[in-house]
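User: quick one - fold this with adenosine-5'-diphosphate bound?
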Amino acid sequence: MKILIVNAGSSSLKYQLIDMDNEETLAKGLVERIGMGVPGHANMKVDDKTVCDVEEPIEDHVKACHLMLGFLTDPEKGVVKDMKEIGAVGHRVLHGGNKFSESVIINQAVMDAIEEFIPLGPLHNPANLMGIKACQAVMPGTPMVAVFDTAFHQTMPPKAYMYGVPYEYYERLHVRRYGFHGTSHRYVSKRTAEFLGKDPKDLRIIVCHLGNGSSLSAVNGGKCVDTSMGITPLEGMIMGTRSGVMDPAVVQYICDNDHISVDEMLNICNKKSGLLGISGLSNDMRDIDKAAREGHERAKLARDMLIYGIRKYIGQYSAAMNGVDVIVFTAGIGENNIELRRDVMAGFEYMGAKIDQEKNAAIKPGHAYEADISAADSKVKILVIPTNEEIAIARDTLELVTKG
Ligand code: ADP
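Assistant: Sure. Structure tokens for the protein plus adenosine-5'-diphosphate:
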């Protein structure tokens, strides 16, 4: 069966068509600047080569889906003859609140729940819903599945997910830690066990998903027991543009002094902080590394803060699980940044974790592969496992639509 993966944002839609007979990507592409009143852009790549590329007004997500299907079924450049060859669609959905601990077939009740959790995911959930409705409009009758970023973390115990504010906020407003990147944490922790030839039940794993957005999770016996992102993706270590965790009084202090609203301040915390805000240069770790090597003090500070933040979470999660068997690096920074992996792991010999510098350096940026980079005498395995959220979404979709 061929499965279409859709990741809809407020003004963009990323897609990928996967042939599940061999899990091969047939095509992938992007539609951007949807509904912005300026010419939009849509493309499709096959074997990493752009085969379709248009610039034209794209007023809404329905138009975006028409363009996507037009590319996929194009008589010359397309990869399927007919839309009917697409057996199902898997949608990435940000927030499933406390209702979804796994992926589900989309029906009206599921759509109502995604809508119910809009206050918890105000930017993403409305966009995800638009993507679902647009696909339903252009592909009526095709089964669709929702795969939630929050689902894998639903196994956290209350002591890990509760915030220390009065309990009534949890009961009345669902205030708690949810966590994100769950599809990646699930995929990578499962692959980790397979790679090591072990039963997930026998492993205590710390997954370091380090990208533009970063989160760590503690996975004990195959179940997530803690994660660093919170009610929104703002909590955790510093990220590309996010501040990470801080004393909430900072928000009030800056709002009062600079006469800005909480909304404005949270926008600063989400979009202008982290690596970008500290360095004043860039949110991209490659730029930060380059500037740090050239002696840029604030780039060095941003890098140090990120590494220190990751190390603190590794310490926390090792305490949470009474030890750790595997530490695994994934996502853009985790897969590609040799020096960062080296510096994060430096000095963890006291808890039995020691990196092999040569194996670590052998994984060249842009060419990540599954690898054990721990030293021969390391009690804790240190791995690199490239994440693949699309495959995880496609597998869930296939399983749900074929079991009926
Ligand atoms: P997102 O959270 O947007 O999915 P990614 O997982 O793509 O982000 O990670 C983006 C980060 O990964 C950037 O900081 C970038 O510097 C780093 N990165 C991505 N690819 C490479 C590469 N080939 N070499 C070095 N760093 C990379």
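One thing worth noting: The longest strand covers residues 24-32.
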